[in-house]
User: Which sequence fits this backbone?
């Protein structure tokens, strides 16, 4: 750049700088006035918000515009002064290009910051909305869980009641089954005894009648034979030996029948003893089972009595503790009231008169 072009550029820049300084001197008093007016309007806004709202907004917008113009003017003035100095020293415009690049970068950073701030604001709104949704879901879940807990408590209470009823029912059923078993065993025992007696009677009656009938028949036959043999012996003496032998054989048959009858009687007595032993074993078994059931019932009753006594003892101790606590509180209140009454009425225990110190001296004088 030539010297004349440099001088012309400097003259133009100097003129621009002077105009910018004049503009700055003009804007500064207006800004101060506007600022003071905005402060006064703030006080007025506090007193008259409904009337001055739009005026305050307009004044604030104007103040921001003036501040921005002042900053831009100051920036251009600084760039012109730096450019003038560079032209005077080096005859170049590098500082202008550098300032323009820096300003572009600053604006780009500012726009990026604004964009990030806007994204962050949107992200915050989204997170706040999500937080509200999560809180609402948690509240609904808490309510649902509380309802579920209440329902489970009701089910547990119903289960306890049902369990207690089932226990009572099972206990009554067990007692009833035991009673029915005892009655059935007793009835069966009586039935077996009757059956045994009937069988024994039938067996005795049938066997004895049969054997008696057979013996009677044999006796009758023997008698007939004996009569016939006697009549025959009377007619024929030659057959005496044969008649004698026949009589001996009949006596041996009678003796054998008697021995058979004795053996049957022994067998009958043996079978009767076995049946008696079986009946005795059944009776012992029934008695043992009955004793065991009675022992279990007694233990169950004792346990129930222990539980009832323990509950009654706990209830009595709780009532006693409550009574003692109430009596202690009542005694404390009564003592406090009585002390307050004594203090308010000015009552108190009378003071004891002081002891006389010259008692010993008087005694000595008497001596």
Assistant:
């Amino acid at each position: 750049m030539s010297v004349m072009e440099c001088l012309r550029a400097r003259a133009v820049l100097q003129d621009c700088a002077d105009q910018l300084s004049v503009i700055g001197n003009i804007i500064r008093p207006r800004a101060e006035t506007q600022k003071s007016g905005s402060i006064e309007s703030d006080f007025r806004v506090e007193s008259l918000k409904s009337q001055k709202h739009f005026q305050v907004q307009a004044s604030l917008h104007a103040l921001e515009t003036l501040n921005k113009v002042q900053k831009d003017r100051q920036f251009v003035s600084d760039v012109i002064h730096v450019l003038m100095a560079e032209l005077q020293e080096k005859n170049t415009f590098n500082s202008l290009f550098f300032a323009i690049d820096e300003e572009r970068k600053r604006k780009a950073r500012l726009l990026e910051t604004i964009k990030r701030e806007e994204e962050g604001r949107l992200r915050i709104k989204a997170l706040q909305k999500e937080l509200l949704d999560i809180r609402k879901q948690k509240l609904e879940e808490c309510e649902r869980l509380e309802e579920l807990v209440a329902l489970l408590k009701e089910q547990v209470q119903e289960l306890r009641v049902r369990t207690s009823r089932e226990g009572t029912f099972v206990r009554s059923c067990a007692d009833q089954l035991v009673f029915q078993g005892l009655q059935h065993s007793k009835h069966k025992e009586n039935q077996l005894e009757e059956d045994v007696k009937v069988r024994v009677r039938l067996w005795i009656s049938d066997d004895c009648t049969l054997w008696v009938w057979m013996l009677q028949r044999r006796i009758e036959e023997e008698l007939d034979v004996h009569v016939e043999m006697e009549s025959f012996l009377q007619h024929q003496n030659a057959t005496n030996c044969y008649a004698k032998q026949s009589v001996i054989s009949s006596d041996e048959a009678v003796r054998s029948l008697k021995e058979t009858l004795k053996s049957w009687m022994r067998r009958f007595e043996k079978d009767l003893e076995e049946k008696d032993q079986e009946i005795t074993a059944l009776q012992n078994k029934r008695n043992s089972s009955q004793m065991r059931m009675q022992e279990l019932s007694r233990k169950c009753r004792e346990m129930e009595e222990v539980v009832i006594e323990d509950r009654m003892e706990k209830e009595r101790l709780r009532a006693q503790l409550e009574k003692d606590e109430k009596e202690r509180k009542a005694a404390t209140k009564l003592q406090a009231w009585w002390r307050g009454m004594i203090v308010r009425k000015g009552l108190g225990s009378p003071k004891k008169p002081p002891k006389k110190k010259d008692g010993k001296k008087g005694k000595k004088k008497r001596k």
Observations:
- The chain has a mean pLDDT of 73.
- Helices lie at 3-47, 49-89, 94-235, 240-345, 359-366.
- The two ends are 147 Å apart (CA to CA).
- Residues 218 and 254 are 8 Å apart (CA to CA).
